[in-house]
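R.M. (postdoc): so does anyone remember the format we settled on? I'll just put the structure tokens first.
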């Protein structure tokens, strides 16, 4: 069953029923100010940090679903009260439509001959959210209505806002100026920021106190002020401050009224904190309001935003015989990659914005999916990430985006983390040719006195593995590797101990074959980068360490038919045919084969065949099999989940991409693309009633074959699935891969494909690449012509002339 459709020409997903299986959301914002918005107007806004600079309040896990707060509008029409976005009133609409586009959402609702269209967006370089509201009389008689707006202020720190009521109920403060309601709670303390909600027209009334607007025991669906058609003109003093306007609107048949609401954030210099008597400095707010004084100015800003996204998405485009593939590659996958870059795993409908900041491994992997769009911001992010690295090469697992400091509460010792920094830097240099980043002086643990060139950070990342090897010569897993729930050491901790300080009676010798595969795969990239950048001795040293690891993996990490997952703290195999449950895991199969392990002797193919046989389902590949049916203290959290969910034999979409890449490396393009179609959102749209999540973006996981709700997804939007699937389809399957000296062309496609075209912008040049497959092979390049001339290899040489170059690739 479908709940809408793709409008590819407008780069939109159009939702045609308000009752989607779960709230289907979009993200607004490109730089510092961000908003989450559902298809009925739910969600919230924040500046830079969803925990420390939360602007509007939202209640997760609310009942009814998605009515925990939002940017709400109400129509009072002769005592008939309804909402254009359906929520929160939930009155039946004559027509409903939500269009989620690139950085904007447009919701239209009609009832009783009143049509209201609201376009929500965050303009480029603007710390605020614009709501353009268009109200039209579609009937044949005059209409007199009252339009009410509503947002609820969060008291900045989202965690404190939800816990410290004894204080917060006494601190709420607002200031009213014309049609603008200013949220200045705690402005007179140590903070220098405030928020505001305004409309570009005179108002009939306003409210800034929640209880006055709603009534003590009413919800968002039946606010007393709206039910009576009249604002209270309340001024908040403590308790829960809000911002609501009311405007009386008279419309003749066919007449339209346009309004612009602004939800904005201002941060003043500390010396400009006060004007007098705690009256806030409104200078910046006034300038922001002037920017959108008319509907025409809002339209111009929306056009600039649309042009911005058109430009970003033009940097890699595909023309193939499959519409679903085109829309994923050209629109939605790239769009999701940009959202994950901006927010990591911090704020979604499954992440509260409080518990997590920017992930170290997460953000490094996210870089892989958007580098071709905004390499300058990728460079900044790499330096931010490296600046949180510890002196021994380890890393904080997360950092707060506002302070850019490592999160002490989470700490580190996730021993895969350091390697992802190497992969991010390699990808950046290949995309840009900018070797100078390796010389940038970068602190350890944000301590400038301990700064070193970024190249030294990469060396310590590499050495962090070889300095932490276990009894089989394989990397120690630490607290966990990529799979945070596989806790092979933590079972022996005493109550109250932290991983960093405890001492295991068994020596903490759990080893990760997955990290070993990563080390080989990423280590080879590191060695090549060192060679290309002139550090030949370091390259040779790295190659020797990689060779030792390859031998250790093939001697101790291969289980006869597939790669082991790990050794636990007792030295027992994990992910082995010898295990009662969890005999095979997906991660080590993908990363070991991506590193080239087992390719020369058929063991890689044997492992990939085992993946399909034991892990394959129609909705994707499960993470492990058989599922754990009981708790294993030596495995930790992974065995606490019910069978088929999350890491316990769920379809973890992130690592499905590693198998796609591995199949491509092995030359099996049909199987690589088959796996791609099993989880790509556009291909799941037809069974949305089962999948439940948005059919335009990837989810983190899908319930596996052992689950009671097989095929149901969770944790949409903020997942490494986005970047890795973009890498899998564009670089490994379509085979257009940036390299140090140009673009490497190495497809691994279904044999039935005849041809496809990719337009790739690369370091200022544009390459129009046509791939032909007359012999219907999966892999192999017979010839490569650049502007009619035969190339010396499968690498398109970088021209550096800023021109358009025609490339013809013939497979065979």
């Amino acid at each position: 069953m479908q709940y809408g459709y793709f409008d590819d020409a407008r780069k939109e997903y159009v939702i045609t029923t308000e009752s989607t299986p779960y709230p289907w959301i979009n993200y607004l914002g490109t730089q510092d100010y961000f908003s989450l918005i559902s298809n009925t107007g739910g969600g919230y806004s924040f500046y830079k940090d969803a925990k420390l600079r939360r602007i509007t309040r939202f209640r997760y896990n609310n009942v009814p679903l998605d009515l925990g707060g939002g940017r709400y509008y109400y129509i009072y029409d002769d005592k008939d009260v309804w909402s254009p976005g359906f929520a929160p009133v939930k009155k039946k609409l004559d027509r409903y439509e939500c269009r989620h586009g690139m950085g904007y959402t447009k919701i239209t609702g009609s009832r009783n001959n009143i049509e209201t269209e609201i376009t929500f967006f965050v303009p480029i370089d603007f710390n605020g959210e614009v709501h353009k509201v268009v109200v039209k009389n579609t009937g044949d008689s005059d209409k007199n209505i009252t339009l009410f707006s509503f947002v609820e202020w969060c008291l900045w720190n989202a965690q404190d806002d939800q816990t410290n009521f004894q204080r917060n109920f006494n601190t709420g403060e607002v200031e009213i100026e014309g049609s603008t309601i200013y949220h200045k709670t705690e402005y007179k303390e140590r903070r220098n920021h405030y928020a505001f909600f305004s409309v570009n027209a005179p108002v009939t009334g306003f409210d800034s106190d929640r209880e006055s607007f709603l009534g003590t025991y009413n919800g968002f669906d039946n606010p007393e002020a709206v039910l009576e058609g009249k604002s209270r003109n309340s001024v908040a003093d403590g308790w829960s401050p809000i911002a609501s306007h009311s405007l009386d609107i008279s419309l003749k048949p066919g007449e339209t009224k346009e309004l612009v609401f602004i939800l904005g954030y201002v941060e003043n210099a500390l010396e400009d904190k006060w004007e007098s008597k705690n009256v806030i400095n409104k200078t910046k707010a006034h300038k922001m309001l002037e920017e959108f004084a008319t509907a025409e100015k809002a339209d111009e800003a929306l056009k600039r935003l649309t042009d911005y996204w058109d430009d970003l998405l033009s940097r890699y485009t595909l023309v193939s015989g499959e519409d679903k593939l085109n829309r994923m590659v050209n629109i939605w996958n790239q769009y999701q990659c940009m959202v994950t870059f901006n927010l990591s795993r911090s704020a979604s409908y499954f992440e509260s914005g409080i518990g997590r900041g920017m992930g170290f491994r997460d953000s490094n992997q996210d870089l892989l999916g958007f580098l071709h769009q905004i390499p300058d911001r990728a460079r900044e992010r790499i330096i931010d990430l490296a600046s949180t690295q510890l002196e021994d090469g380890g890393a904080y697992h997360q950092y707060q985006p506002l302070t850019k400091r490592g999160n002490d509460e989470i700490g580190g010792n996730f021993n895969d983390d350091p390697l992802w920094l190497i992969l991010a830097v390699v990808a950046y240099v290949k995309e840009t040719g900018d070797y100078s980043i390796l010389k940038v002086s970068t602190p350890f643990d944000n301590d400038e006195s301990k700064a070193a060139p970024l190249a030294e950070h990469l060396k310590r990342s590499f050495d962090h593995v070889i300095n932490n090897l276990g009894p089989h010569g394989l990397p120690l897993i630490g607290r966990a590797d990529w799979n945070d729930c596989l806790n092979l050491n933590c079972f022996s901790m005493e109550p109250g101990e932290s991983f960093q300080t405890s001492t295991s009676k068994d020596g903490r010798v759990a080893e990760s074959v997955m990290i070993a595969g990563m080390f080989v795969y990423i280590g080879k990239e590191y060695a090549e980068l060192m060679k290309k950048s002139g550090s030949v001795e370091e390259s040779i040293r790295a190659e020797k360490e990689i060779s030792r690891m390859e031998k250790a993996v093939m001697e101790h990490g291969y289980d006869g038919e597939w790669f082991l997952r790990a050794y636990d703290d007792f030295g027992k195999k994990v992910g082995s045919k010898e295990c009662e449950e969890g005999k095979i895991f997906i991660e080590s199969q993908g990363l070991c084969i991506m590193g080239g392990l087992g390719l020369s002797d058929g063991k890689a193919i044997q492992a990939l065949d085992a993946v399909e046989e034991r892990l394959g389902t129609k909705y994707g590949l499960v993470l492990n099999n058989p599922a754990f049916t009981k708790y294993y203290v030596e495995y930790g959290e992974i065995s606490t989940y019910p069978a088929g969910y999350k890491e316990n034999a769920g379809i973890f979409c992130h690592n499905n991409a590693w198998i796609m890449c591995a199949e491509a490396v092995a030359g099996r393009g049909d199987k690589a693309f088959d796996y791609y179609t099993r989880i790509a959102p556009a291909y799941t749209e037809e069974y949305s009633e089962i999948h439940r999540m948005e059919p335009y973006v990837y989810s983190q996981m899908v319930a596996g074959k052992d689950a009671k709700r097989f095929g149901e997804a969770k944790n949409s939007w903020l997942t490494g699935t986005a970047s890795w699937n973009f890498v899998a389809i564009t670089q490994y399957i379509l085979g257009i891969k940036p390299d140090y000296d140009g673009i490497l062309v190495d497809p691994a496609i279904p044999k039935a494909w005849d041809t496809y075209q990719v337009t790739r912008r690369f370091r200022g040049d544009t390459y129009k690449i046509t791939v032909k497959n007359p012999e219907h092979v999966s892999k192999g390049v017979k010839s490569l012509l650049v502007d009619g001339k035969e190339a010396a290899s499968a690498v398109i040489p970088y021209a550096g002339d800023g021109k358009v170059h025609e490339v013809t690739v013939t497979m065979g």
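R.M.: ...and that's the designed sequence above, right after the tokens. Also worth knowing: The longest strand covers residues 143-156. The first helix runs from residue 158 to 163.
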